[in-house]
Amino acid sequence: MACCHDATCSATADPLALDSPGWRRALWIALVVNAGFFLAEMAAGAAAGSAALQADALDFFGDAANYGISLGVASMALAWRARAAAAKGATMLAFAVWVLGSTVWHATQGTLPSAEVMGVVGIAALVANAAVALMLYRYRAGDANMRSVWLCSRNDAIGNAAVVLAAMGVFGTGTGWPDVIVAAIMGGLGLWGGWQIIGHARAELRPGPAGRVLAAG
To answer: What parts of the sequence cross the membrane (predicted)?
Structure first.
């Protein structure tokens, strides 16, 4: 899961906007959507025998927890928001390790998932995540906490599209390898994104030009 590297990523949002009704409303909507799809995809992934769907379900769970954390620290100082972002990065790393372990298990067992279930659930999740990502687009240039929320939603939509492609691959080849490959890629992206979010958070906690702001937290 990649972070951006242009000038907007280093900009911090107006502190007064971090606890705005619009930001909180967006987080609540994202929280409800992600919690609902976690339950739906976990059940569907188990029923379909799909590593990719289960990986996506755990991603939804991690994001729901992340949005809850973001709601809790929205009005806090930058240092606390950066610490919350670091915790979210650690959650992404844990999720990625679980995904990779589950993927290895499915590969060794030769599981053949249901392409139809994968496709239907993947498309529904893609529509939901794309809508959430568009809603959060305006916050992509905020602090590490806001960026992590935006990145989670954007990359979830990309992951959902990959699940749909995996379903097509399973249907076309009659094997479970497309499902395994997509789950492994999602796990790798989770490792990358988690390290990048932690890196952004550590930069905001490091003494420097923003030292006076951090000291205030």
So the answer is: 26-52, 64-82, 89-105, 117-137, 157-174, 180-198
